[in-house]
Amino acid sequence: MAIDKEHSPETTMRSNFIHNMIDEDLAEGKYQEVYTRFPPEPNGYLHIGHAKSICLNFGTAKKYGGKCNLRYDDTNPVKEDMEYVNSIEEDVRWLGFEWDEKRWASDYFDTMYDAAIELIKKGKAYVCELTAEQMKEYRGTLTEPGKESPYRNRTAQENLALFEDMKAGKYGDGEAVLRAKIDMSSPNINMRDPIIYRVAHATHHNTGDKWCIYPMYDFAHPIEDAIEGISHSICTLEFEDHRPLYDWVLNEVGFWNPQPRQIEFARLNITNMLMSKRYLKKLVDEGAVSGWDDPRMPTIAGIRRRGYTPEAIRSFCDDIGVAKSNSTVDFAQLETSVRDDLQFKVAARNVVMNPIKVVITNYPEGQIETCEVENNRNVPELGEREIPFGRELWIDGDDFMEVPVKKYFRLFPGNEVRLKGGYFITCNEVVKNEDGSIKELLCSYDPETKSGTEGGNRKVKGTIHFVEASTAVKIKIREYQTLMIENEDGDLELNPDSLHETWGYAEPSVSDVKAGERFQFFRKGYYIADSELTTDDEKVFNSIVSLKSSWKK
After folding, report:
1. Can 277 be counted among the known catalytic residues?
2. Any idea which architecture 473-546 has in CATH?
3. Is 41 a catalytic residue?
4. Where along the chain do its domains lie?
5. Is the pTM of this model over 0.85?
């Protein structure tokens, strides 16, 4: 599949400690090419933490002219769903990458079973019938060694027969497991006879009812890597303690040369962002959000609907770098990456929120003229557009103050301001409703001050924007805060104010906006027409990011 040029990574990612290790391996002739993989489990939608892994694995392959596979870790049929598979592929492609081969862990079930048989024959694996509670008790602690299972010294013949019984469905779920026979006194708990096969009577999406025993991830993953010829198995830091088991499986089963090399990096953590598919699924299942693609969600589907760009995500992942120890990135840094990308891409539109009616008393009734304004002051190539101007306008509620504070230079009684693209106006009178709220502002304009004319060059301290009232388009605006906030104990909890719906008036060009189009709302921030809620009759915009950053580089 050809990659959309708009989404295609333009630059090679910067070097990091993983690339330094790869450079050493290549220099020593250990590998002839770099071959990586991205191995998600299809049990939920990917989140922005996975975006870092996607960029690292695919980006590394691209940098070295190598290959990267997309491989689904489908060893647990109870939790997997094709909905998640489809979403994962959409996410990878949206980020600008394409896999060399699409594989499934289940493609190798026969090989994994044969490998387990060989381990049993070598006396390196045994069938254990301890309960889960007993196994936990026998496992020991970080300071105390484990205790051997009473089933540990069964003969190879016994274990072969019992493993065949497991395969034949003679055991129920949890009644028996196959364990690697390693060392119950190992200081690494992962090496204390880990489970490598368990019983699960569930129909598999790929293999149907062929199997009722399934390999564990720690057993399956190194075999998958080896079969595919993966050179560098790049994974997150929580698998560092599992690396001895990864190497043990390859050494005991192995007929692969060279063996893959596992390298760990710190996962991505962002302030006030929940990075757990299990908890994100809980939010979806409990209706706390509208779905996996809710714009408040940290899922790739959510941030895509929110209006973030793939270029911004790739830039963010590159900027934060690849580390050996865990840390937390300020959410504001992510927003900065998005803002930096959008400022050179999107056109501005005039939108007023909390609108106040302005009546220009000396402007001809029924007359409408056009004014020219730039689409993006950072990108002159985007040109200009025409907006209507008339006797009645809407201005933003933030641009008027009846009793101005010090250094307030926008509109207030007796003050003159520039209407961007239009004329200079002066507020002469404030008309109020019976409840004391503002009904309208009566203003006058200077007909010699239209923008682009000599009179329009006259100096004035305040400039505000406007929307002509008779052609205005009413739009719905969804403003977002972080979905999660810290409570008094420092734990994350749902933010009750994460979504605020409001409305505003937009210039008439917005009436033709299609779902997915992004704009800068002049002086407000960046917004996108929501992909699910925007129709021909109703325009619904999601806030992407504000214009100003709170992140200090």
Report:
1. yes
2. Beta Barrel (2.40)
3. yes
4. 17-107+218-338, 109-215, 348-459, 473-546
5. yes
